[in-house]
Amino acid sequence: MRPKQHITTAIEKQSEQAKKNYQIHLTAIIDCIRFLLRQRLAFRGNDKTNDSVNQGNFLDLLSFLAQHNEEIGCTFKNARGNLKLIAPSIQKDIVRAAARKTTKVIVDDLGDELFAVLVDEAHDISIKEQMSVCLRYVNKEGQVKEHFLDLVHISNTNALSLKLALESLLETYNLSLSRVRGQGYDGLSNMQGEFNALCKRRDMLRDSQMTKTIEALKSGEIFSKRGLNQETALKRAGDTRCVSHYETILRLISLFSSMVNVLEYVEEDGNNSEQRGEACHLLNVIQSFEFIFNLHLMKNILGVTIELSQALQRNDQDIVNYMALVKVSKQRLQNIRDDGWPLLLDKVSLFCDKHDITVSIMDDIFVSQGISRRKTQKISNLHHFQVEIFYQVVDRQLQELNNHFTEMNTELFLCIACLNLRHSFFAFDKEKLIQLAQFYPLEFSSTQLLALDSQLENFILDVRFDDQFSNLNGIGVLSQKLVETRKNIVYPLVFLLLKLVLVLPVATASVEKTFSTMNIIKSRLRNHM
Predict the structure, then answer these.
(1) Residue 148: what pLDDT?
(2) Residue 395 is part of which domain span?
(3) Looking at the structure, do residues 445 and 393 belong to the same domain, yes or no?
(4) Does residue 36 lie within any of the structural domains?
(5) Is 291 helix (H, G, I), strand (E, B) or coil?
(6) Within this chain, do residues 400 and 432 fall inside the same structural domain, yes or no?
(7) What are the angstrom distances between the C-alpha of 153 and each of 149, 209, 516?
(8) What single string gives the DSSP state of each residue in 90-117?
(9) 69 lies in the same domain as 104
(10) Backbone angles phi, psi at 442, to 5 degrees
(11) 325 closest CA partner among 481, 507, 189
(12) How far apart are CA 271 and CA 419, in angstroms?
C-alpha cells in the first residue's frame, strides 16, 4: 500500500557494495550460529557469577572469524557500531530457519511411511513445561531412524493436553495420526532430583579413600594391577536413570568408611551450625541398620535388572535379546524372593560388623527412628524388614516387569523373535509371523494374510540359500540387506511386516536425550538475558 516503504524498495536503494557486505556479514553470522548449534554451545557465556556457564560466546566467535578473514573483518569493522544482525531476535530467526530446514529434511525422508512417536515432557530452566517429540521410522534404505521433531510448550502435563499438543504438532507437518503404528511415553520425567547435591568434600573423600587403599595394599587385602583399585568418587545420581542409581549405590558401599570420616570431620569443623547439624543427622542415618539393609537390598534388586535397563537405552532396539533379559530378570527376582532373605541378612550383618554398626535383633520390637514407641505398631524387626520391606520391594519390581511386559505384548515380542537371523533363521516360525501380522488389520487384510503365508515360505528358502544373509546380526540389518538386494520388492508383505516390527519403540531413550540438549541451549544465563 506504501510502495516507497516496501522492503524491496529499501533494499534497492542500497549500493551493490553494501549488499555484498550485508551478505558477507549475514553468511558469517549463520556460520557462527551453525557452529554453536552443532557443538551444542550456549549463544551467551562469560557469566562472571558462574564460571561453569562460560560455554561459548557468539560475539567472540564472530570476532575470531573477522580476525582470520579479510572480507568478514572489513564488514565487521565498518558495521561494529550498528550490528543489528547480532541481536537475539535475529539469532532466533536464523535458528528457527535452521530448525525448519532440518525438520523438512526429516519429514521428506519419512514420506508416506508408517512411523512411531516417542513423547517425553519436562520443564526447562524457566520452569515452563515442554513436550519433546521424536519420530521413529524405517527410511528408503531400510534403516531405522529416530529424529527429534520439535519442542512444544504445554500448559500442563495431563493426558488431554499432551494429546492435543501432539495432534497439533503432527498437523503442522502434514503428518497423520492414522500412520502411527507405535507410541512411547515416558512417565518418569517429573522427578526433580532434589538430592543431586552430594557431598562437596571431594578432595577429602579422595584422600581418605587413597589412605585406606594404601593400607589395604600393604596388608595384602587387595592387590595392585593395571585397571584395579583405580581412584573412585561419589557419582551424581541421574534423575530417571536406573543405571545411574545403581552405580551410586555401588560407590556408596565401596566408599562407606571414607564417607563416614568426611561427615565426622564436617560435624566437628563445619562452616556453620546448620552444616554441622546436617552432617550429624546424616551420620545417624547412614550408620543405622535400616539404611545399610536398604542399601544392600537395592543393590541386589537393581543388579538383577541392570542389563535390561542398559539394553533399553541402546539405539539398536534388539527385541529378541530384550525378551531373554526380561525372562532372566523375572526368574532372578523370583529366586531372590524364595531364597534371598537369609543371604541378604548375612551380608548386611557382616557389613555392619565391619563398620561398627549395631545389628538389629530380628525378634525385638521394631522402633522407627524419630517416632515414639507408644505410637508405633507392635511388630517385630523380622516382620518389618522381611515382610514390609524385602517382600514388598521384590514383589513391586516383579509387578512392574509384568505390567510393562504383559501377556499380549510378550506374545507380540515372541512373534517378533521369529525374525531372528541367527543360525540361518533357526527361530523362524511361519505361523507366529502370520499371528504377528494379525496384530495389524489395517495393513493385512484376510486376502493379504493368505498371500503372506505363501511369501513367507518363499522368503525363508531364498534367504537361507543366499550367502549375503548368512552373517547378519539383528533385524535392522536384515531390513537394510533386503533393500540392498531389492528383495524388499520381491517380498513386499514380508518387508512391510519387518518395518512394522522395527518401528515399534521399546524405550524412550532417544527422546530423553532431547532434554539434555535443551538444558544446554536454554541455559540459566540465556533465561536471565
Answers:
(1) 82
(2) 288-404
(3) no
(4) yes
(5) helix
(6) no
(7) 14, 46, 17
(8) HHHHHHHHHHHHHHHHHHHHHTT--EEE
(9) no
(10) -70, -25
(11) 507
(12) 63
Locate 421 and state its grid cell: 537371523
- Residue 158 has phi, psi (to 5 degrees) of -75, 165
CA distance 432 to 436: 6
CA angle 519, 524, 529 (to 5 degrees): 125
Do 366 and 341 belong to one domain?
yes
Among candidate residues 89, 193, 87, 105, the one with its CA nearest the CA of residue 149: 105
Q: Provide the grid cell at 237.
A: 545420581
Tell which phi-psi region holds residue 111, choosing left (phi > 0), alpha (psi between -120 and 50) or beta: left
Give how far Cα 11 sits from Cα of 56, 81, 86, Å.
33, 20, 19
Question: What pLDDT does 193 receive?
Answer: 32
| Integer CA distances (angstroms), 110 to 47, 136, 168, 252, in order | 41, 9, 18, 46
Grid coordinates given for 446: 484376510
Query: Is-contact 483 140, C-beta < 8 A?
Result: yes
Residue ending a domain, choose from 33, 53, 86: 86
State the DSSP H helix or E strand holding residue 247, giving kind and residue range, or none if neither. helix 242-254
351, 295 contact by CB (below 8 A): no
Residues 294, 398 share a domain: yes
- Measured CA to CA in angstroms, residue 261 lies from 252, 256, 280, 446, 502 at distances of 13, 9, 12, 71, 52
Q: Is residue 454 part of a domain?
A: yes
Is the overall model pTM greater than 0.70, yes or no? no
Q: Contact, 525 vs 56, CB < 8 A? A: no
Could you tell me if 325 and 374 lie in one domain? yes
**Would 262 be classed as within a structural domain?**
no
Half-sphere exposure of 176 (CA within 13 A, CB side): 6
Enclosing H/E stretch for 211: helix 202-219
pLDDT score of 483:
93
pLDDT in tens, 475-517: 888 899 999 999 999 999 999 999 998 888 766 566 666 656 6
Tell me, rounded to whole angstroms, the distance of Cα 165 from its chain centroid.
22
386 plus 471 within the same structural domain: no
Instruction: Give the number of domains in the chain.
Output: 4
CA dihedral 514, 520, 521, 525 (to 10 degrees): 150
In a domain, 464, yes or no: yes
State which residues of the chain have pLDDT below 50. Answer: 47-56, 81, 188-198, 200, 202, 226-231, 239-240, 525-529
Per-residue confidence (pLDDT) for residue 292, from 0 to 100 = 95
Among residues 154, 137, 133, which one has the least CA distance to residue 146?
137
356 & 451 share domain? no
Which of the 8 DSSP states describes residue 365? Answer: B
